[in-house]
Amino acid sequence: MTTLTKTEDSPAPTGPESFLSVRDLKVRFSTEDGIVKAVDGLSFDVERGKTLGIVGESGSGKSVTNLTILGLHNPRTTTIEGEIVLDGQELVTAAEKDLERLRGNKMAMIFQDPLTALSPYYTVGRQLSEPFMKHTGASKKEARDRAVQMLEKVGIPQPKTRFDDYPHQFSGGMRQRAMIAMALMCDPDLLIADEPTTALDVTVQAQILDLLKDLQQEFGSAIIFITHDLGVIANMADDLLVMYAGRAVERGSTKEVLGRPSHPYTWGLLSSMPRLDGDINEELTPIPGSPPSLLNPPTGCPFHPRCAYKDQVAGTLCTDSRPPLAPGRAAACHLTAEQKQTIFIDKIQPRLR
Description:
This protein has about 350 residues and is α/β, with parallel strands linked by helices. Helix content is about 35%, strand content about 20%. The strands form two sheets. The chain has a seven-stranded mixed sheet, with helices on both faces.
């Protein structure tokens, strides 16, 4: 069941050249235990040629959001409300045949684990070629030439030979490169990267990130980069969206959000990160507690059960009222601007130096 709604609780961000526009997105899953509110009123924009980073703990709704953009949920167990517009085309109400035409062609995804995303029964070359032939009508030879070209572009050695290899014959880094090649076969306008470097060692991770930036420069794709690693996102993203319990709690340019964060959850994420130039014996400050159950999320601010600063808010605002997220640079928090500034300067900024 799909309905389109707009609410004042999740105002639309502003963007001059939005290629992808998500408005008040809600995604619910029916389970034996009840309804899971996986995404709960999410709005954001992505511009052409820009990268939006989405960060948050596991279960915050990052991957669900992007699978919803691609239309990859089971319609029998999933309810989607809101609006997703890609280059003028509404996706929430689109027919499956229209989504199939767009997937791999206008939008593509690099999955976190290429070993499970790639079929073990077909060669890497075949898995690159067949979608290209389907979307473009190219011949088998044209598709093979294109696949070899893309394997070479992503740094696979001897691409003509490796075209006929199976995924298990590739190393982890090469499989990830093959996944990137597959995603870029049809020059998609939107590329979604779901923690594409999580399972890779640091050297290969750096190579993959550099590759994505180079390919974005060449193809002009918009990128959504999902990760839990703020260090990675600092070097990849133009803009940043911080998610918690299916909601956006802070957004802005990456420089603004990481340089002067305004939400207690973002403060917690940054304070729990080790610094390369810090004292090796320095004690990290983890966020207390655990993320809430999305079967029964807390009332008011979803972060209030774990927030160290809720006592500074008058009355029961944190427990009773959901803080709004204003358009543009904003944080969904009941603390006043003066309180945020004082806490940041006194307690957070010294840890980030």
